[in-house]
Specification:
Structural class: alpha/beta
Number of helices: 9
CATH superfamily of the largest domain: NAD(P)-binding Rossmann-like Domain
Order of helices and strands: EHEHEEHEEEHEHHHHH
Helix content: 40-55%
CATH class of the largest domain: Alpha Beta
Strand content: 15-25%
Shape: elongated
Oligomer: single chain
Number of strands: 8
Strand order of the largest sheet: 3-2-1-4-5-6-7-8
Radius of gyration: 22 Å
CATH topology of the largest domain: Rossmann fold
Amino acid sequence: MKIVIVGSGNVATVLGKVIHNAGHEIVQVLSRNENHAKELAKIFNCSSGSFKSTEYKEADIYLLAITDTALYHLDQYVHLQNKLVVHTAGSVSKEVLKNVSSDYGIVYPLQSLIKSSQEEVTEIPLLVDGSSVDTTAFILEFCKTFSDNVTIADDQERLKFHVAAVLVNNFTNHLFAMGEEFCKKENIEFEKLYPLIDETVHRIKLHPPQSVQTGPAIREDIYTLGKHLQILSAHSDLKYLYLKLSESILKHHQKK
């Protein structure tokens, strides 16, 4: 199929490469930043330009990998009549595209995608939906050509998955960042924690996370919690997070 990509960031780059490697043709890359669009277009050997002013090439699918804010204003600049237009946002309704085209839908990658990463993402689950039964079926079959994990999900289901994704990925990564910063300030090696991180992720694939919770909070080990908080007295932001998360662990498991 012929694809026009609108966007040049993480999702546009990674998903574009995956779609291209599956044998589809990227015929055009458009972006708010024309220079970024040009750089991405070089990978696919196609034309580029601004999504606000450049004429859109003929394609089977127009993939919008742009910010949520940009999606809400897209119909001011783009009108593709009956062309199939899909966006990639997790928390934005498909109906945001109803004034862009009469044929529209969703291809939401339930994965953290970073264009600067040197490693290819091995699995990208996709949540899809469409403006009609036929459109949904078409998007589903298209996505199955480059992903083995494709599920139909409506706006509400997709939003719930997006919330869960923020919890398990964005928040967790922030804790990793805070942990690394703490280690640097306290002159200990963050890398020593890699086996622990790996074991934590491996374990939750085999057991419900709640059943394998460990640490001083679940044990109600006040003595150890106090010692940790004393160490964290020089790290006010981290101390706040430690207190709130310990409280959350304690309350959650007391309920259970």
